[in-house]
Write a structure and sequence with these properties.
- The chain has 162 residues and is mostly helical.
- It has a single domain (3-158), classed as Up-down Bundle (Four Helix Bundle (Hemerythrin (Met), subunit A)), CATH 1.20.120.
- It is 81% helix and 0% strand.
- The chain has helices at 3-29, 34-67, 76-102, 113-141, 144-158.
- α1 (3-29) packs antiparallel against α4 and α2 packs antiparallel against α3 (76-102).
- The protein is elongated.
- The chain binds fe (ii) ion (FE2).
- Residues 59, 80, 84, 126, 130 line the site of fe (ii) ion.
């Protein structure tokens, strides 16, 4: 698959995951207790961390280094990388707090809702920026050789190598 289209498909998956995350936040706000959310929230912790990591790595290791040789709006790539760090930090905080809540530690208050929504907000705007600005630029700028290079990097990352 074309590597930029593959990243778009990842984004669609992530948007669905973020909606599931918001659904969990709403259920907790409405009073759902840890045992009711254990299975779904436990799965969300693992899946969100994994998907954000694999997807961010594809862009950081595969796409962004290739884009550096092209003329792009100033600071665009650095902004994207900063946003990746921000999303990873919010997802990390969410995972820690959700784990504590599920195990009955610290507090009965679902303190994971705050970082979950921060992750959702930042990742949503980041995805829109990439879909509307970065990917169209990449489609226009990348040569056939660069596309193949990016696709090879993605295949290594999807396979768990590299
Ligand atoms: Fe990104």
């Amino acid at each position: 698959m074309d590597p930029v289209r593959a990243l778009c498909a990842d984004h669609d998956e992530l948007v669905m995951r973020l909606q599931e995350l918001e659904d969990l936040c709403v259920r907790a706000e409405r009073g759902a207790e840890p045992p009711e959310l254990a299975a779904a929230l436990g799965a969300m912790i693992d899946r969100l961390r994994e998907e954000v990591d694999v997807h961010s790595n594809k862009e950081e290791i595969g796409l962004i280094p290739v884009l550096r040789s092209h003329r792009l709006p100033e600071d665009l790539l650095e902004t994207l990388l900063d946003e990746h760090e921000g999303v990873r930090a919010h997802v990390h905080d969410f995972a820690i707090e959700a784990g504590l809540w599920l195990s009955g530690g610290r507090s009965r208050e679902p303190a994971w809702i705050g970082p979950a929504r921060l992750a959702r907000g930042l990742l949503s705007t980041h995805i829109q920026k990439e879909n509307l600005l970065v990917f169209p630029l990449a489609e226009r700028l990348l040569t056939a050789e660069e596309r193949a290079e990016v696709a090879d990097a993605f295949a290594r990352l999807d396979g768990g190598g590299a």
